[in-house]
Write a structure and sequence with these properties.
ATP binding; Rossmann fold; 2 domains; cytoplasm; alpha/beta; 5-stranded parallel β-sheet; Depp_CoAkinase; single chain; 56% helix; binds adenosine-5'-triphosphate; ATP-binding; globular
């Protein structure tokens, strides 16, 4: 089977920053968050099922899912959340596979924020790369990028696995602290290793 990488990390750890450095070197990125978002945008392929399951009330004027309303519907209601996920998860899976088939890079990187949390992803990729930084750094980055309070960032982090649990799932780790040249050097080394693995997976 072809070599694929799953890239993950907590909120604000630097997944996008690191993924883009790999893309600069020739890897193909499949952004699962972006694909998931597209499913429920206007004319997204999940919209008909959402109308069938939840009703037209959950669709905005522009044809997109009403995210705020859906968030309210599923918050604290595991059975409603499961009903939504039963629609979205198979579609995310088929869309990411489609994107992977169309990719032309030297290997594929699935960028999956909740890779460790969602279980099945780990078995779908050849290797897991965790982008890691201290929690205090995550908090500072997300506070300044999104204008959130420390408490709000901590609440998001509380819904994700701990730094230790995520690191335990890692085959490789990038320490995303310090300036970009330090990150680039780590990316270059790993890319060389992944190219070799991709090459030997072909034979
Ligand atoms: P999210 O989970 O919220 O999508 P992410 O893990 O993709 O985040 P990025 O968007 O790459 O993280 O980075 C979060 C913020 O921190 C961005 O504003 C980014 O510019 C900044 N950042 C990332 N890495 C570094 C670094 N090494 N030094 C300084 N700032 C950084």
């Amino acid at each position: 089977a072809a070599f694929t990488l799953g890239l993950t990390g907590g909120i604000g750890s630097g997944k996008t920053t690191v993924a883009n450095l790999f893309a600069d070197l020739g890897a193909s990125l499949v952004d699962t968050d972006l694909l998931a978002h597209q499913l429920t945008s206007p004319s997204g392929i999940a919209i008909p099922d959402i109308i069938r399951q939840f009703g037209q009330d959950f669709i905005q004027q522009d044809g997109a899912m009403d995210r705020a309303k859906m968030r309210e519907q599923v918050f604290g209601h595991p059975e409603e959340k499961a009903r939504l996920e039963a629609i979205l998860h198979p579609l995310i899976r088929s869309e990411t596979e489609k994107a992977a088939r169309a990719a032309t890079g030297s290997y594929i990187i699935f960028v999956v924020p909740l890779l460790v949390e969602s279980g099945s992803w780990k078995s779908r990729v050849s290797r897991v790369l965790v982008v890691d930084c201290p929690e205090q750094t995550q908090i500072q980055r997300v506070m300044s990028r999104n204008g959130l309070s420390e408490q709000q960032v901590r609440a998001i982090m509380a819904a994700q696995v701990s730094r230790e649990t995520r690191l335990q799932a890692a085959d490789d780790v990038i320490a995303n602290e310090g300036d970009i040249s330090q990150i680039s050097a780590q990316v270059r080394d790993l890319h060389a290793k992944y190219l070799k693995l991709a090459e030997s997976a072909k034979t």
